[in-house]
Amino acid sequence: MSEEKTYGLMASFETPGDVMHAAEKVRDEGFKQWDVITPFPVHGMDQAMGVQRSRVPMFTLIGGAIGFFGGNLMIWFMNAYDYPIIVGGKPMFSPMYAFPVSYELTILLAAFGTIIGMFLLNRLPMHYHPAMKHDAVARASDDGFFIIIESSDPKFEEKTTTAFLKDIGGANVTKLED
Amino acid sequence: MISLDNTASVNESLIREAKPASVPRRKLVENDRDFGWITEKVCGIVEGETPTWWWVCFLISGFVSLFTVVGTIYLIAAGVGVWGLSNPVNWGWAIVNFVFWIGIGHAGTLISAILCLLKQNWRTSINRAAEAMTIFAVVCAGIFPLIHVGRVWFAWWLFPIPNANAIWPQFKSPLLWDVFAVSTYGTVSFLFWYVGMIPDLATLRDRAKTKIRQVLYGFFAMGWRGSNRHWSNYEMAYLLLAGLATPLVLSVHTIVSFDFAVSLIPGWHTTIFPPYFVAGAIFSGFGMVLTIMLPLRSIYGLHDLITQYHIDCMCKITLATGSMVGYAYAIEFFIAWYGANDFESFAFINRAFGPYAWAYWIMVTCNVISPQLFWFRKVRENAALVWIVCIFVNIGMWFERFVIVVTSLSRDFLPSSWGYYSPTIVDIMTYVGTFGIFTFLFLLFLRFLPLMAMAEIKAVTPQADPHHNAKGGAH
After folding, report:
1. What is the pLDDT of residue B105?
2. A96 at the B interface (CB within 8 A)?
3. How many helices (H) and strands (E) does chain B have?
4. B102 touches A at CB < 8 Å
5. Is the pLDDT of residue B470 over 60?
6. What pLDDT shows up at residue A2?
7. Would you call A132 and B225 a contact, using CB atoms and an 8 Å cutoff?
8. Of B205, B216, B234, B351, which has the fewest CB atoms closer than 10 Å, so is most exposed?
9. Considering the domain boundaries, does residue B10 fall inside one?
């Protein structure tokens, strides 16, 4: 570590309303590499930030499909193909009796898909992040609201961005180190 | 045409004039508490010194849970003969207890999933504890079918792996459906609980003073930092999990009821069982949620977070589901008569007036009559009375399962094979011990994990609305 690289600039806000209006301005200014840090999901923030609809449902669908078809396949394999046994004169395989277990497996794997999808899309677990290095950010899990504009953004320029963050109502504009 | 245009213009001007009536909404957090207060309050439970009552309860519950441990060891060592099971009643307390505990769990999932989908924001201050209750209830429930199989060392035959003779489990059996339903239920409930807790674990991590707390909370918080790009995926995932848990909770008790309904025993072989079991499960679960939350509310002074409105809502759901259960009891009788099947009608007359009539009438009193008190606001506002009614609900729902399991089995088709079932002391103590296990786990949860979903409570306060103005005006 010869020199500290700047990760970005952080400004704090007091209320969800303030941070949302500020976020709208950051979005309109054309920044791409930036984030809002809040203690709870603020309603309408996704639109204010211009965040796309989450892609988690795709993972859910894939998990659920694997669960349902995998469940049916498993039951067919076990009870009708690998070791068929006649029970009560019933058919060796029927989607009727295979349904309850396949249904449960659909839900089980869809839930796993959802959670894996959420973690993958969020790049979690990530126990080190420059945004968590600064002590003030601890308030973000209590009652603080922050906007961080990253230095990797093409529009980032330390002086003007600092001025811009102050201009949109941000207090305590601080530099975050990588 | 002209007249139509006129009406349209009149309406338009009226619409411009008219202001929507402001619908008064009950506050979910009383006394206008701010975000910081909510964090302090909930984290304070975990961060403060361990109260004396906690140690007392912890030691007692630890001792009581030994009953289950000892009872189980004795059962495995000596064989199922130590229980009261004998022909014709081969499903005794173990199955009763299993259905009882699984049912308790259902309110947790109802609160966290179904009420989430229905946008019932009052769920936020009780969902975490209710989900914890679900998981611990499933733990207690899981013990019984496992030890009930008799030769527990063969319990792995229930898993989808071939046994020593390369035979696979038999998927035509509802008992196997039950294995999948309950294990899925336990897993998904746990995932839902954990995912919901991640932001709050991050709060505890950020407030942690000692190294060990920082490391442990930090590890389990997964590096959550409250980024809105994360919240976006998180909220979607949470909504989807709620959407998945809803059909799950309805299916689990449905499949539990299939254990009975798919058989041919009079009194079990009925199509009403799935909805009736689900209503009963939610009923008993809400009884248990109130039984737990009312004492916690007064011990920790959570009156601003669990308000009278919350208690009212829970009482009303208890009343509604209790009445559904009562309706199901009545319909069972009606169908037994209307179906004109001698065995079926005998089974029900035997339930109400046979040797187990005492159990039947305890069940009806506790489940159908006692929740009717919740019609009265005065009752709902009296926390002690609500708590007592909920204890009756818990008792009544245990007896419901007892009545279903035992009365049908003790007198089925052939009078020559009738019998009377009584539990042994091993049955009783093994069951009592599960309350110790449940309390033990819940106390640990109380001490080390956030009791309430802080982030979710903050999100439903008025000041969390970005259009909320501190001066009280509209945006």
Report:
1. 86
2. no
3. 18, 0
4. no
5. no
6. 44
7. yes
8. B216
9. no
**A60 contact B CB<8A:** yes
Query: Is the CB of residue A152 less than 8 Å away from at least one CB of chain B?
Result: no
Are B95 and B144 spatial neighbours (Cβ–Cβ below 8 Å)? yes
Residues 101-130 of chain A whose Cβ lies under 8 A from any Cβ of chain B: 101, 103-105, 107-108, 110-112, 114-115, 117-119, 121-122, 124-129
CB-CB: which of B39, B237, B465 is closest to A143?
B39
Report whether pLDDT(A129) > 50. Answer: yes
Q: Is residue B85 part of a domain?
A: yes
CA distances in angstroms from B241 to A117, B121, B123, B189, listed in the order given: 12, 17, 16, 9
Joined together, the tokens standing for residue B337 give: 């008569």
Residue B295: give the domain boundaries.
30-460
* Six-digit token string for A39: 């203690």
Lowest-pLDDT choice from B23-37, B370-384, B442-456: B23-37
N residues, chain A: 178
- For residue B469, being part of any structural domain is answered with no
**Pick from B172, B203, B245: which is nearest to A90 by CB?**
B172
Q: What is the pLDDT of residues A107-118, one digit of tens each?
A: 999 999 999 999
Q: Which residue, among A7, A35, A40, would best test binding to B if mutated, counting the most B CBs under 10 Å from its CB?
A: A40
Reported ipTM: the value is 0.91
* CB-based contact, A78 to chain B, within 8 Å: yes
For residue A84, give both structure tokens.
């068929």
pLDDT, tens digit (0-9, with 9 covering 90-100), for B214-255: 899 989 988 888 888 889 999 999 999 999 999 998 898 889
State the CATH number of the domain containing residue B94.
1.20.1630.10
CA atoms of A113 and A171, how far apart (whole Å): 40
Q: What pLDDT digit, counting tens, does each position of B129-139 carry?
A: 999 999 999 99
